[in-house]
Automatic annotation (TrEMBL):
It is an enzyme of class 2 (transferase). It comes from Kyrpidia tusciae (strain DSM 2912 / NBRC 15312 / T2). It is found in: Membrane. Coiled coil: none annotated. The lineage of its organism: Bacteria, Bacillati, Bacillota, Bacilli, Bacillales. This is 4-hydroxybenzoate polyprenyltransferase.
Length: 290
């Protein structure tokens, strides 16, 4: 099989749709908040490069660090490393190249992004180990993915602002919420192998309520951006649609029926990310060009 295809499968390239729209969201909101304008094409380019590097490195690290666990889990035993389709050395080279790409992009964006590059790397590494000792691993993943909108904001503004932190928190809680649902698939395996998660610690029924609560917090945080960033009705409509999609997601999954987890995890949440981005971008474009 073509190595490129194997590496794309390794990093689940199709899941980039979860993170990339939020990086663009942070970028667009920062430009609008600071200049009432739009980011430059060079900023868009280097943020895209940074996201590809960051996500590729993160997924590569997760697969290498978890390769022994994945080999024992029937759900993940067919992944590239457990099957020997890619070697550990090949994946480590891929990770190093991805981190170099991320570092170059950070350098090209601004000094603050470059200074924070090591912090991002540490968070990416730490996440893969967290489920070995804490049920809060979902929240660490949320923080890691929350770096996408925060990084997009910093790439344009070169400084920390309260709306950037709120946006990052909104994405972090949303990511944690659907990662809890995704973890329902491995509850029995995780218990048998001493791994930690919210459903292992609190059970599936309580895990669902925790996930719902996190999604409610996420929607509230998205709406609170209206306090600091002069967005309009189009943004509010977009977040209302996000809320409806999240309600639909939670109707797909119950303690008695786990057959729709993949649909809830991938299909619905990909729409959430796209709707949030499209309506926010539309609102900003309306204000900039009207």
């Amino acid at each position: 099989m073509n190595k490129l295809v194997l590496f794309l499968r390794l990093v689940k390239f199709e899941h980039t749709i979860f993170a990339l729209p939020y990086a663009y969201l942070g970028m667009i909101l920062a430009a609008y908040d600071h200049t009432r304008g739009l980011p430059t094409w060079w900023q868009v380019f280097w943020v895209t490069v940074a996201m590809v590097g960051a996500r590729s490195a993160a997924m590569g690290l997760n697969r290498v660090i978890d390769r022994a666990i994945d080999a024992r889990n029937p759900r993940t035993a067919q992944r590239e490393l457990p099957r020997g389709l890619l070697s550990t050395l090949e994946v480590w080279v891929f990770i190093i190249v991805s981190l170099v790409v991320l570092g170059v992009a950070a350098w090209k964006l601004n000094p603050l992004c470059l200074e924070l590059f090591p912090v991002a790397v540490v968070i990416l590494v730490v996440y893969s180990y967290t489920k070995r000792f804490t049920w809060m691993s979902h929240f660490v993943l949320g923080i890691a993915d929350g770096l996408a909108p925060l990084g997009g904001w910093l790439a344009v503004s070169g400084q920390f602002d309260l709306p950037a932190v709120v946006l990052a928190a909104a994405v972090a809680t949303w990511i944690a919420a659907f990662d809890i649902i995704y973890a329902f698939q491995d509850v029995d395996f995780d218990r048998e192998n001493g791994l930690h998660s919210v459903p292992v610690r609190f059970g599936i029924r309580r895990g669902l309520w925790i996930s719902r609560g996190l999604d409610a917090v996420s929607v509230g945080l998205f709406l609170s951006l209206l306090i600091w960033v002069p967005l309009g009705w189009l943004y509010a409509v977009g977040i209302a649609m996000v809320a409806l999609l999240l309600i639909y997601e939670h109707r797909l999954v119950s303690p008695e029926d786990m057959t729709h987890i993949e649909k809830a995890f991938f299909t619905v949440n990909s729409y959430v990310a796209l709707v949030a981005f499209v309506f926010t971008a539309g609102d900003v474009l309306w204000h900039v060009f009207r």
